[in-house]
């Protein structure tokens, strides 16, 4: 357990103290090893992040810390294309091709293709991206779509409840529509798995231009 400089142990119940401790929440004795494997995987494939290190704040939250001062306009991270999961990779899967052919009207198409790739590829123990999958949080109860009835009750009277319900319904509609044209998806991922992947993607994806094409 990490301690503050004065020797006291931080209260891991608060978000700020989790940030200070960087090891709050459920204990995973293998997590530091997983981080090291992931960083070594990135470095072995040409990534560069000389002043950064990854941390786990609790069982569901990860972050990146600077280990040294960073000067203005300094490049802090460089990741080669081969280490990125892109929309095109999802479209190239069997289920991705089926979705394209069916021309399904989806809530967030780019997110869905990234999700489909992850959900299928992570089943392969020899996946090139296994070091990345291994550091993803197994649950995301901090995301509103996973809040329970007791937690949602605290928002009674707030428009946020309607937004959460709409988001849940949109994700479920996408899942059902894909399963209708590609039933095998249900053998790979449940609706909860699909929701988990959606939250992983929407909290971690970014836009990029590859060969003149904008993708995510």
Summarize the structure.
The protein is 44% helix and 9% strand.
Q: How are the elements arranged and paired?
A:
Blueprint: H1 15-21, H2 31-44, E1 52-58, E2 61-66, H3 87-91, H4 94-102, H5 109-121, H6 130-133, H7 149-153, H8 160-181, H9 185-188, H10 191-202, E3 208-210, E4 213-215
Antiparallel strand pairs: 1-2, 3-4
Features:
two-stranded antiparallel ribbon, 216 residues, mainly alpha, 9% strand, disordered N terminus, 44% helix
Q: Biggest sheet, strands in spatial order?
A: 1-2
Low-confidence stretches: 1-16, 22-26
N- and C-termini, Cα separation: 37 Å
Biggest sheet character:
2 strands, antiparallel
Mean pLDDT: 86
Overall radius of gyration: 19 Å
SSE string, helix = H, strand = E? HHEEHHHHHHHHEE
Principal-axis shape equals: globular
Structural class call reads mainly alpha
- β-strand percent reads 5-15%
Helix proportion: 40-55%
Number of strands: 4
Helix count equals 10
What would you say this structure looks like, in words?
- The chain has 216 residues and is mostly helical.
- The protein has 10 helices and 4 strands.
- Strands 1-2 form a two-stranded antiparallel sheet. A two-stranded antiparallel ribbon has the order 3-4.
- Helix 5 packs across helix 10 and helix 8 packs across helix 10.
- The radius of gyration is 19 Å and the shape is globular.
- The chain starts with 14 loop residues before the first helix and ends with a strand.
- The N terminus is likely disordered.
């Amino acid at each position: 357990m990490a301690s503050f400089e004065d020797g006291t142990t931080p209260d891991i119940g608060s978000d700020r103290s989790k940030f200070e401790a960087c090891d709050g929440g459920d204990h995973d004795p293998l997590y530091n090893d997983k981080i090291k494997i992931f960083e070594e995987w990135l470095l072995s494939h040409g990534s560069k992040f000389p002043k950064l290190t990854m941390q786990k704040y609790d069982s569901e939250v990860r972050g990146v810390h600077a280990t040294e001062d960073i000067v203005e306009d300094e490049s802090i991270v460089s990741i080669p294309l081969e280490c990125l999961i892109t929309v095109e990779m999802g479209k190239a899967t069997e289920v991705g091709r089926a979705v394209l052919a069916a021309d399904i009207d989806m809530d967030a198409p780019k997110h869905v293709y990234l999700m489909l790739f992850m959900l299928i590829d992570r089943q392969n123990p020899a996946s090139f991206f296994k070091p990345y999958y291994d550091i993803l949080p197994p649950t995301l109860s901090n995301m509103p779509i996973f809040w329970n009835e007791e937690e949602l009750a605290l928002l009674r009277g707030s428009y946020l409840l309607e937004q959460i319900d709409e988001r849940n319904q949109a994700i479920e509609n996408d899942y059902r529509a894909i399963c209708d044209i590609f039933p095998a998806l249900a053998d790979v991922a449940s609706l909860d798995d699909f929701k988990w992947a959606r939250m992983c993607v929407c909290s971690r994806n970014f836009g990029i231009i590859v060969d003149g094409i904008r993708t995510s």
